[in-house]
Amino acid sequence: MMPKFKYIGALAGLALAQAAPAQQISKPLSSLASNSVTGHILCRGGSNVPMTTDAEQSLPLRVVAHLDCGQEVSLLSNSEGYTVNVHTADGKTGFVPWMNVAKGASAAVKKPNVQSAQLHDGIASWVVGTPGSERFYSEGLMVESLTVSGVTVQVSLQDTGWKLLANVAVNNGSLQAINLVPARMSLDDLDTDKSLRYQEPKKLRGAVNHQILWTTANAAPSDAGYLANSSANSNSSQSSTQNYLAEHQATVQLVSEHRAEFNPHSQMNSVALRETAVLPNQQISGSSWFQRNGKRQDMVLRVPVGGITYEFPLSFSHEKQN
Length: 322
Description:
Number of helices: 3
Helix content: 10-25%
Shape: elongated
Largest sheet: 7 strands, antiparallel
Number of strands: 22
Order of helices and strands: HEEEEEEEEEEEEEEEEEEHHEEEE
Radius of gyration: 26 Å
Structural class: mainly beta
Strand content: 25-35%
Number of domains: 2
């Protein structure tokens, strides 16, 4: 009879083992350790993050819940493994990858306080006086700022006498990571209906010179960005959004002042805008170069970010500055 009892005991032990995760999942937040660290869920390309019952997250996944981007969770472990044990406000416990968690209360995504521009077939255009479109001057450089659903893109355009230099900053105030690929940016000359080629930094290594950060002219607003009724022009320079290009401008200024200490290749590497995924609450900035033509009149700079194309009308005709 002993083998039979052992068999019954083994079944009971298995049942208890299977019940443990269910009990853990339904455990109320108040019964957990009061010193748990707060975190927030980061979505890296997806719309949510699955939470599983096992730390290894082996296939097939045993999913407890799908956590929303920016959702607050309590961190119940601080292991060095691939996943972290978390607890949600509605009483569920499970494991998510560390890469999908931002620690600390400061990781909470801030709600944007800037109005959102309208989209037309996935395109947002900077137009003076419309929601989400702002303009300001930073160290004498005109910056156009455009916000869509919490994601702000700011640009300026300069002529170095060698190439056209586009300075770009992206601030992600949304709940999801967004992709930025500089090589997908474009600069169109409206006067000649010609697209000026994006200059891949790697391919410029053999041709770079000390003109990469020089400025012979700064772009100003273009008539293409003005409403037919431009009564809002007088207020267009009053910006309510933060200057996300300021840090990059400081870097460019530092490199320019110490130009003799850097070869042109090093200058380019230190300021170039790079392909990246911009996480929630993160901002990036950098410079990109485009083919230069001799005319330098009305242009449109297009910056694809997170599935949306941000369009900025710019001009090198200085008398159009206000």
